[in-house]
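Interim report, section 4.2 (structural modelling).
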Amino acid sequence: MSTTVDLPRRKLRLLPPPGQPAIDVAEHLARHGPLPYRGGHGLLIDDVQASGLTGRGGAAFPVHRKLTAVHRGHVAAGRPIVVANGAEGEPASAKDKSLLLLAPHLVLDGIQLAAEAVGADDAVLYVGIDKLNLSWLAGLITQRRAAGIDRVPVRLVAAPPRFIAGQESALASRISGKRALPAFTPPRVYQRGVDGRPTLVQNVETLAHLSLIGRYGPSWFRAVGTPDEPGTAICTLRQADGRVDLTEVPLGIPLTSLLDLSQCTAGGSGGSSPLGCTAVLVGGYHGAWLPAGTAAELTLSNADLRSHGASVGACVLAALPADRCGLRETARVARYLALESAGQCGPCRNGLPRIAAGFAELAMVPQGRPDPELIADVRRWAALVERRGACAHPDGTVRFVASALRTFGAEVGSHLRGHCTKPNQRPFLPVSAEPITEKDWW
Amino acid sequence: MSAKPAIRLLVNPIACCGHGVCAELLPELIALDEWGYPLVSDKPVPANLAKQARRTVTDCPALALLLTER
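Predicted structure of the assembly:
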C-alpha cells in the first residue's frame, strides 16, 4: 500500500486546534482520513507493537500485549469484547472527559480498530455520567452506525462517580450489570471479564492514539517522545496560581515546560511570591509528591520519575502553591481516598481510615500538638495495607502518603512542634463528593 | 528427580472476614495483623507443612484461603 496519506506534522495529535473541536463525523473524516480497517483479526497488532504504545490510563502497560492476550483468549472463552475506559474517577484529572468532548470520533475509531484486532463483535464506551452528556455521545454512535463507519455496535455504560470505578475488574462488574466493585484476581479481565468473556480494557486516550497508529503507522507515532516512551500524552496541569490547563505534549519533555516552576524553591521552605511553589504532585492521587527542585530536573517519563518513586500515571501534574501546606493537602486527599475504598478487603477497610485520621491529626495544627508517635503509626499502617488488597487502591494511597512524609519532612518537623508555616488554608487539590450510601457505588 | 512446583498460600482479601482460624492452625506461615487479618508468608510451603496447609485451607470458615502453584 502506498503511503499517500498526508501525515499531520502539527504538535497536537489528538486534541484539535483551539476552537475547532472535531464533533461532526464528516469533518473528522476529512481531517484524519477514513477508518483504516485491516480486513482481519490480529493484523493491527504488529503495528501497535512496533509503535511502542502504552496504556494512557495510568499503568503504562504495553497495548500490544493486552491485544494479543485477548485475541488468543478468543477461542477458549467466547467472543471478546472491547471496553473504552473513560471513567476517569480521579478528581484532579480532566483529560479523558476533554478528549471525548473535543475529539470523540478518534476514540470511537479506536474502539472499532481494537475490536477488529481482537476479534470482538461488540464494544462498550464506559464514561462517568457526572462528566459527559451520555445522550449526546449516544447520538454520535448512532450517526456513525447509520453512516456505515462502525462495524461493531457500541453500547454506552455509565460509570458511577467513584475513584476506583475505572479499575478493570470493577468496570467489568459494572458492565456485567453488577456494582462497580473490584474483584479478586485471577482470572484477569483479559481472560474472563464482562459476562465472563475475554475483555480488552483500554483507556479512551489509548484508543485515540491507536486509531492514529492505524492510519499513519508506527514510525509516525515514534517521531515524537523518547525511544522507550514514544508518542504524546494529554496532561491535566494544575498550576500554582490555580489555573487548570489541558495540553497534549510529547513524553520525555522537561516538567519545567509544563509547570511554571521558575519561582519555586528547592528546599521546600516556601517563597513569598504568590506564584511560587514548593512541591509537585506527579501522577495524581495514586502518584507521588516531589520537591519542586527535584521535579524541575526531571522529564515527563517513567524512566526519570520511577527512580524518584513517582510515575507518569494519567498525566496529572499539580504545583503546590508556596503558601499552602502539603500535609494539609495530603490529609484532605487521604481522607477522600479512604472514603473511596470499596471496603471489601480488611487491610484497606481498617488501614486507610487510620492513615487518614493520623494525617488529619498531623495536619491540623494549631488545634493541638500532634502525638510524636503518629508518624511511626502512619508508616506501620501503610506497610500493613500495601499489597494486601484485591485492587491497587491501598497501594496507590500508600504511595501518595509516603511521598508526602518524604517531601514535606520540614513541615512534619514544624507540625510536631505545634505550628504550621503556611498561612493559606484554602483547599487546593480537588476532591469529589463523598459516597453516602451503598447506592453510590451502583 | 523432577522438582515439584512450589506451592504457596494465597488469601482472597475480599472473601476473608478475619476469623483468624488460619493463624491458629498454621502459625508457622500465617500471623494476624493488628486488625485480625492474616499476614500470609509468600515463601513456598515447606514439604513438612504441606498437609497442615491443605487442612488450614479447607478449614477457613470464609473459604478465603487458597493454595497456588506459582
